[in-house]
């Protein structure tokens, strides 16, 4: 995962190793048909997050397969939340824990929280981290490109026929096709962007 600019001011030193709270989990992986209710579930959690964090949440966006209409997905709502300083956990972690989310991963530049039911994942990143834009780039491209949407879904279906130690191993296996799709998305975006103008992020949902 790309990390924020090394010169980004932080309150303290970030962690240097990955902490997997609760250890490795072997979970059943499966896809379900697209569900129009996913957008409403995202909206409900987005409101909860914004209410808990206020101005600390610089970006709150629905990402991942459940954010793409027509795409089969694991029934997990993925949300990216961008903050100014990942090390200032008191500003975002404590409020999110207080409203029911649970810390799952603490790693350099990234925190992952989820619901106790494990059906909503919050990816906390710094707003300077290019991964935020990458998530939105992939989502927006899959929303409009049927061929890549089909490629992504078929790849996931193929990977799910295999055995995985945990969801992180499965996620890593998707990296190749995701990078391939993002390369096409960047090419498309570049073709529709005036080189003299600064690229802007999509509006928040």
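-> sequence recovered:
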């Amino acid at each position: 995962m790309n990390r924020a600019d090394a010169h980004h001011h932080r309150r303290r030193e970030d962690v240097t190793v990955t902490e997997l709270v609760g250890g490795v989990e072997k979970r059943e992986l499966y896809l379900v048909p697209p569900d129009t209710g996913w957008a409403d579930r995202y909206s409900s959690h987005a409101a909860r997050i914004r209410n808990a964090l206020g101005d600390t949440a610089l970006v709150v966006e629905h990402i991942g397969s459940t954010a793409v209409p027509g795409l089969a997905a694991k029934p997990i709502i993925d949300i990216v939340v961008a903050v100014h300083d990942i090390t200032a956990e008191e500003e975002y972690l404590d409020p999110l824990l207080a409203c029911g989310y649970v810390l799952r991963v603490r790693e350099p530049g990234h925190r992952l929280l989820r619901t106790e039911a494990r059906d909503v994942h919050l990816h906390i990143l710094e707003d300077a981290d290019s991964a935020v834009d990458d998530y939105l780039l992939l989502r927006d491209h899959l929303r409009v490109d049927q061929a890549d949407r089909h490629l992504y879904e078929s790849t996931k279906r193929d990977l799910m026929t295999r055995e995985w130690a945990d969801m992180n191993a499965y996620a890593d296996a998707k990296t190749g096709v995701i990078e391939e799709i993002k390369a096409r998305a960047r090419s498309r975006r570049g073709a529709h962007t005036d080189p003299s103008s600064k690229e802007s992020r999509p509006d928040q949902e």
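The longest helix spans residues 37-53.
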